[in-house]
Structures are given as C-alpha cells and as structure tokens.
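Data card: per-record layout.
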Amino acid sequence: MTDTEAPRPRKTRKDALGNRDRILTAAREALAESGGASLTAIAKAAGVGIGTLYRHFPTREALVMELYDHDIQELIDLAPALVASYPPLEALRRWFNEVARYGRLKYGVAEVVHAATNGGLDDEHYEPFLAAIAVLLAAGAADGSLKPGLDPEDVLLQLSVLWRIDPTRDGGTRSARILTLITDGLRSTPTPPPG
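The structure for this 195-residue chain is written out next.
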C-alpha cells in the first residue's frame, strides 16, 4: 500500500452483526418491562458476554439512543406504508397502536432520551415524525374521515401522554382508551356511544 492509498475499512463480521441485533432485541424487551433493566441482564438475555455488549454500546445511554433512533425511524417509515395499504382511519389506528407499543419502551427510558435530545430540541427525528403524522392526517382529511386542517404538532402533543403511562399498571388498557379518545377527537364525525 502506498502512502496515498487509504486503508480499506474492515467489514463487520456476520457474528458481530448478529450479536448487535440480539442485544438490541433483548434490550427492547427488557426496557419495555423495566426501565431499570441492567446491562448485565440484557447481555445475558441476548446470549452474549457483558464485554460484547460494551463493544457495541459503550454506555447505557448509547444503547438506549440506538433503540430510540431505530424505533422512531420505523414509526416514521410506517405511516406512508399504512396509508398505501389501508383506508385512512384504519391506517391512523394501526399507526397509533404502534406508537403506543413504542411508548411502553420510552416510558422506562424517557429521561435518557429527553437529556440526549435536549428536551426534544435537538431531536433529528422531530420534523420527520411530524411529517409522518401529517401524511396520516392528510389521507383522512382527503376521504372525509378526519377533520380538515388538523395540526400534526397538536396530535403529537396528545400522543406524548403515552410515554407517561406505566406499562406495569394496566398500561395497555389505558393506552387503548386514550387512543380511542384521541382518534374520536380527530374524526370528522365522532363514534356514536355503544348501546
């Protein structure tokens, strides 16, 4: 190799990528159950040693932020896919359910994400997340199932209550009730009461 040639980047080994994926899966499950899940417990659940976990994620915050980045991007990408596959109101409901699932993870680690993104002010996902909500709202306004002129930021503020619901205290049921209230508030004609 001459002085002007740059060294070729090393390829990440297949087993290292597998370890990383297993760590992320185990962390997502552990943190959804308890925000205080230890890194040792996460490594054990992933079937790797603690040193392997630290090679991929040198701090707890690095692991949490990797999960956050991945999950938020999935939600952003999901909105247009749902609009393409379902009637707008059903697409909105399905997306809200995924946001609620994500809220169970964020409940336990919200303070880490909040600190890392300067309270959301430095969050690179904020505008794309609003754009994802806008796609869902526009589709619903176009077919008349949702009120026209809804503000995506208002909807995001309503959804933010999901990260405050303790999943260990009947969180799934509470999330479902809250999502019904939010959806009914967005509909052009509210759902009639049962009975």
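Known properties of this structure: The first helix runs from residue 14 to 33. DSSP finds eight helices and no strands in the chain.

See the next section for split statistics.
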